[in-house]
Amino acid sequence: MKEVLGTFKTRKNGNSISITVPKSAGISENELFSLQKENGNLVYKPIREQSNPWKNGKFKNHDFRKDMQELEFDIGNEKSVGKERLF
What we know:
two-stranded antiparallel ribbon, alpha+beta, about 90 residues, about 15% helix
């Protein structure tokens, strides 16, 4: 679904050209984006959603308890094997 946020004019900023992003777009300061050219259109895509599986939902429905059972990994009930200091 496309949402039009307005019309914006480019401006010179040093040796670059800038386009202002309105606050209503919901983008925070210092977020990272990649810029791609697709069919003559410039497309900015947030990097955070692509690179962090904890934030992009990749593990949202993953069953970590099943993984622990398959690996026979029982958190909190491990036995000491050396000189661990238990508090």
